[in-house]
From TrEMBL:
MF terms (GO), sorted A to Z: DNA-binding transcription factor activity
Protein name: Cyclic nucleotide-binding domain-containing protein
Matching Pfam families: cNMP_binding
Lineage: Eukaryota, Sar, Alveolata, Ciliophora, Intramacronucleata
Coiled-coil annotated residue ranges, if any: none
Length: 397
C-alpha cells in the first residue's frame, strides 16, 4: 500500500458541516455512510468518539498517486467526496482503465462481509481526491450497535459508563443475555461456598458484603453501591462463592440489578469485558482481605469474654469522665448471645457511662465454679478495720 499524504478523523468533517462552504459539499456524501444520522448522535459522547478515531479517517490523494495495487488487501470502504479515481487492470503487460469513480460513488462495499478481501484493480487518483476511509470493523460496529441501541438503550448506556475502554460491539451479545432482578431489603442473595454462575451489576440500592473471619463467623467488610458489580468469581469455574451478599435498601425500595448468567462462550464474544471483570474481582479480593485484617483488631468474644479489654477501643480516659458528646455511629450486634449492644450516647446527664456494656447471660457451670473471692464472707473481711487482727489466709481454688 502506497504512502498516504494526510489523515484526518471524521470528526473534522462533522465540524465542517457547521461551515456553509463545506456543508453542501459533504452532506450528500456523508449521508451515504451507514447509520450516519445515528453516528452524529453517538459522537456526542467521548467513549465512542475514541473508537471513531481508530476506524474512520479522511483520506487525501494527490494526482497520480496510487491508493491500491492489484491484489492488495482491502480493509476499508472508500467513499469519494471530491476528485476522480481510476480503476486500472493489467492486461497482457498493459494497463487498461476499466472505469472512473466520481462523487458520491464508493468502493469495496461488496467486500465488507468477506473474510479476506483483495483489490481486483489498481486504484489511482486522476485528480486531487478527498475520500472517507471507513474500516470494515467500524461498519460492523455501527450496524450492530445502531440496531440494538434503541432496544437495549438502558443496558448499553450502563456498560458504556462502567467500561469505557471496551468496544460497544462487545456489549451487544453480552447485554442480550442480561436479566433484571429485584431484591427486597435484607434478602440474602447468596451465601459463601455456593455454586457461582451469575454476575450482578447494581442499578439501584445497596448490597452488603460479608466475609468469614478467623473465628469462622461472617462480618461485614464493605458495601456495594449503585453502578458497582459483585459475584465476579462466577467467571472462574474453579472458584466457589467467596462471600455472602445481602440486599440492603431503605423503606419500601428494592435493590435492582442486571444479572448475567455465565455461559461457555462469554470469553469469546466479550473477551475484553470479561477480562476487566476478572481484574476487578482480583482487585476487590485484595481490598476485602485488607479489610478483614484491619477489623481483626476489634474486640471479639471468646467463651463469654473479650480477647482484649474493651476500654481501649472507646475514646474515654476513665469511666468517671463525662464527655460532652459521645456517639458511636454504628450499632454492632454480635451473633448468638448478643454480648455487645452499642447505644447512642449523646446525653451525659443520664449517666449512661455507668451502664454495663457487657451483659453476660447466666451459665450454670459458671455458677457452680464461682470465685470464692467474690463471696459475702470475703467482702466482710476486706472491709474490716485496719486495727483488726490479721485476716486468716483463704485458700483459693
Amino acid at each position: 500500500m502506497t504512502e498516504i499524504n494526510k489523515y484526518e478523523t471524521i470528526i473534522t468533517i462533522l465540524k465542517n458541516l457547521n461551515n456553509p462552504k463545506f456543508a453542501s459539499q459533504y452532506e450528500q456524501q456523508l449521508n451515504r455512510l451507514p447509520f450516519f444520522n445515528f453516528y452524529k448522535q453517538v459522537f456526542k459522547t467521548d467513549s465512542f468518539t475514541q473508537n471513531a478515531f481508530k476506524y474512520i479517517q479522511l483520506l487525501y490523494l494527490k494526482k497520480g498517486q496510487v491508493y491500491k495495487h492489484q491484489t492488495d488487501s482491502i480493509e476499508s470502504v472508500i467513499i469519494l467526496l471530491e476528485g476522480t479515481l481510476s480503476l486500472i487492470k493489467n492486461d497482457q503487460k498493459k494497463q487498461k482503465i476499466i472505469t472512473k469513480i466520481q462523487p458520491p460513488d464508493h468502493l469495496f462495499q461488496a467486500e465488507i462481509y468477506k473474510k479476506v478481501a483483495y483489490s481486483k484493480y489498481k486504484i489511482m487518483a486522476l485528480t486531487d481526491c478527498t475520500a472517507i476511509s471507513l474500516s470494515f470493523i467500524s461498519i460492523h460496529e455501527i450496524s450492530v450497535y445502531g440496531f440494538h441501541f434503541a432496544k437495549y438503550k438502558e443496558e448499553v448506556e450502563y456498560f458504556r459508563i462502567q467500561f469505557p475502554n471496551v468496544k460497544p460491539i462487545e456489549f451487544i451479545p453480552f447485554i442480550k443475555k442480561l436479566k433484571k432482578e429485584y431484591f427486597q431489603n435484607n434478602v440474602k442473595i447468596y451465601t459463601a461456598n455456593q455454586q457461582a454462575n451469575k454476575v450482578y451489576f447494581i442499578i439501584s440500592g445497596e448490597v452488603e458484603i460479608y466475609a468469614e473471619n478467623e473465628d469462622g463467623k461472617f462480618q461485614r467488610v464493605t458495601i456495594a453501591y449503585e453502578n458497582d458489580s459483585f459475584g465476579e468469581e462466577a467467571l472462574s469455574t474453579s472458584i466457589p462463592r467467596l462471600y455472602k451478599y445481602t440486599a440492603k435498601t431503605q423503606y419500601f425500595k428494592k435493590t435492582t440489578a442486571f444479572v448475567f448468567e455465565i455461559d461457555d462462550y462469554c470469553h469469546i464474544y466479550a473477551p475484553n469485558l470479561i477480562k476487566q471483570l476478572e481484574d476487578k474481582m482480583r482487585f476487590k479480593e485484595n481490598l476485602i482481605q485488607q479489610k478483614i485484617k484491619q477489623t481483626s483488631t476489634l474486640p471479639t468474644i471468646i467463651n463469654g469474654s473479650l480477647k482484649k479489654p474493651f476500654q481501649q477501643f472507646l475514646p474515654i480516659v476513665s469511666p468517671t469522665s463525662k464527655a460532652s458528646s459521645i456517639k458511636i455511629n454504628r450499632t454492632i450486634s454480635l451473633n448468638d448471645v448478643r454480648l455487645l449492644n452499642f447505644m447512642e450516647l449523646n446525653n451525659p446527664d443520664k449517666n449512661y457511662l455507668n451502664r454495663q456494656l457487657i451483659i453476660e447471660q447466666p451459665d450454670e457451670q459458671s455458677n457452680q465454679s464461682r470465685d470464692r473471692t467474690k463471696s459475702v464472707e470475703f467482702q466482710k473481711l476486706l472491709n474490716h478495720k485496719s486495727d483488726s487482727q490479721k485476716l486468716p489466709q483463704i485458700k483459693l481454688y
